[in-house]
Amino acid sequence: MASKPRTLYEKIFDAHVIERRDDGTCLIFIDRHLVHEVTSPQAFEALRMKGRTVRHPELTLAVPDHNLPTTPRLDARGERIPIADRESADQLAALERNAPEFGVRYFDATSSQQGIVHVVGPEQGFSLPGTTIVCGDSHTACHGGLGAWAFGIGTSEVEHVLATQTLLLRPSKTMEVRVEGQLGLGITAKDLIMHIIGVVGTAGGTGHVIEYRGKVFERMSVESRLTVCNMSIEAGARGGLIAPDETTFAYIKGRPFAPGADEWDDAVTYWKTLYTDPDAEFDRSVVIDAAEVEPSVTWGTSPEDVVAIGGTVPAPESFADPSKQEAARASLEYMDLAPGTRMQDVEVQNIFIGSCTNSRIEDLRAAAEVLRGRRKADNIKWAIVVPGSGLVKMQAEAEGLDKVFTDAGLEWREPGCSACLGMNPDKVPTGERSASTSNRNFVGRQGPGARTHLVSPAMAAAAAVTGRLTDVRELTREPA
Amino acid sequence: MEKVDTVEGRAIPFGRKNVDTDLIIPARWLKTISREGLGRGAFESVRAGNPDNVFDSEEFADAPILIAGDNFGCGSSREHAAWALLDMGVRAVIAPSFSDIFAGNAFKNGILTVVLPQEQVDRLLEVAKTDPISIDLDAQSVTTPFQDRFSFEIDPFRKHCLVEGLDEVGLTLTRDEAISRYEDRMSASKPWLARGTGVAA
User: Fold this and answer.
1) What's residue B201's pLDDT?
2) Residue A479: is its pLDDT beyond 60?
3) For residue B198, what is the DSSP state?
4) Residue A475's beta-bridge partner residues?
5) Chain B residue at shortest CA distance from A423
6) Residue A2: pLDDT band by 50, 70, 90 thresholds?
7) pTM of the model
8) Of A37, A65, A97, A201, which is least packed with CB atoms within 10 Å of its CB?
9) Closest partner residue to B101 among A154, A160, A163, by Cβ?
10) Do B31 and A88 touch (CB under 8 A)?
11) Strand A149-152, strand A17-20: pairing
12) Do A389 and A115 form a contact (C-beta atoms < 8 A)?
């Protein structure tokens, strides 16, 4: 073997090159394409106007998630309840029309397979190691948790993929985030990725694909790996991935679109070639000490505004960069927080457990573990738990988790993106705070004037119990 | 796509760093099945309750250029951000850096993204308050009425597409044979991959 040592990303990239141009641009084959109702209507419309077809309908999977209300979808007689918001109803209707017209597999809003695209892809065995996966959504990097090169695209690119099953791309730079040591007790994948974003910054990964490396990730469940990769875009990286291993293969086996029994060994043989060669070089490397990771929480309006739950709101002057100082001042004004405030003293009125980052069964179990036998605090006005898919919902109900949530005073909802992005009825009221397991704390993200504190599912559950941001370890510690 | 050669006129001196696509166009505006009319929702949260904002100033009405800080267009992949800018009349954005997804979306809609070092962007922000700015794509330069002349880099393929106003989908469709050859190889070596949502035999 005389070939140059390559990183995992470079191996996947090379395996998908159809043509390489002189200027370095490559025509890349796209193995898997996920489509939802918000970023696809204009793409299908463009195909229709130009008389073009979908080149590989079987490589695209469509499912509505972004603006579906999370209230019941069927009435007592089993009839569909129409969506009140007319524009949302029109968008859903467009997807329901476009998918069959172009021959694309579609999971209806009322089917148990429906859910958030990034929960559905892995769950159905549609997302596989070593594949190129795209979706008109920036959290597509999520599927990198299976060892795929997955990234978000715009609507013009959605059209390009539908028509040609390819994209024109230049190779990204490679970046290694190596986590050394072990995470402390009660520290989750969400705490870790938020900590990483705090270190790297929201633009730190721009132009790069991140590979997360180290024992911590090898020991993680696939669902935790999906949570980590999901937020790569919050560090500026369009893609983030973790090498597939036995944990990955065990997760995929038997899922509906996964390789069948007679093909399984061939697939695994291929997947086992998907790792970064020992001598491969990354363009950039960031090393994180796992022991330093505490339960993470955001104080500002950028995902990089991360602090440990035991910490305080930073003073804008504490940042070296003048533009960061200015941004911090604006953030604190929007968040109505004073420097020096202890994070644990920040009261919240709303709790959101859900989103493509944290709505899988393990996330719901972690939240339920904290809430079991407890009640939400009186100052919590609105608290919802939104499973990532119909199948996650069924599993949670089989385990009795729904009962734990409702007994604690939280609402148990239908699957969808919900309060992550303020485009369906689930919103945080103006001026109020939320402890949210979603991925973005941008100005107005959860609704105009809403103040978001990003946390893990266990931390959101702890905040529900106490009514303020809380170190979950105080609630889960064994009595002495 | 419309051909792009020069973009000339007033430039909105926004200057802010880390402008995310939720700021450019909030989610509630995404519930549309068309590309038109999104300019009304552009920078809504900057405009709200602040009558002196640059976007509503008469001076910058129909300005074809926007100047911003580092990491412009970060966050969501929504192409609506590019459509909103286009609907506002913006044909070029100048900033020290752009998010990857936004830069791609802008390009596909014929919006020029010009990367210049922070000190040159600072100079242009100053000039933009009172005077027009000119961007020459062919010469890859930005000039002001005060003899400033800043060169910028652009991907040669993107430049070619912008100058010629090429439809990228149409271009790729001409590569049908190469794509078919790849597909044949894949179906033969990894039938489990090529099947997608199809049912196994």
Assistant:
1) 46
2) no
3) S
4) none
5) B28
6) low
7) 0.94
8) A97
9) A154
10) yes
11) unpaired
12) yes
pLDDT tens-digit map of A25-71? 999 999 999 999 999 999 999 999 999 999 999 999 999 999 999 99
Per-window interface: B 13-52 vs A, CB < 8 A = 17-18, 20, 22-23, 26-28, 30-35, 45, 48
Give tens-digit pLDDT for A387-426: 999 999 999 999 999 999 999 999 999 999 999 998 999 9
Kindly report the length of chain A: 480
Contact A216, A202 (CB under 8 A): no
Distance of CA B63 to the CA centre of its chain: 15
Task: Tell me if A166 sits within 8 A of A275, measured CB to CB.
Answer: no
**Are the C-beta atoms of A377 and A475 separated by less than 8 Å?**
no
Closest in A60, A87, A440 to B31, CB measured: A87
d(CA A367, CA A401): 9
Return the HEC string of A58-88: HHEEECCCCCCCCCCCECCCCCECCCCCHHH
Which of chain B's residues have a Cβ under 8 Å away from the Cβ of A138? Answer: 75-77, 101
> A329: which residues sit within 8 A by CB, 6+ positions away?
A316
What percentage of residues in chain A have a pLDDT greater than 90? 96
Q: Is A383 exposed, middle or buried (0-12, 13-18, 19+ CB in 10 A)?
A: buried
The H-or-E segment that residue A106 falls in is: strand A105-106
Put the strands of the sheet holding B149-151 in their side by side order. B6-9, B133-136, B141-143, B149-151
Asked if A411 has any chain B CB less than 8 Å from its own CB, the reply is: no
Distance from CA of B1 to the nearest CA of A (A): 12
Phi, psi of B179 (to 5 degrees): -65, -45
In angstroms, what separates the C-alpha of B144 from chain A's closest C-alpha?
25
Report the distance separating Cα A51 and Cα B159, nearest Å. 27
Residue type, A118: H
pLDDT mean over A364-368: 98
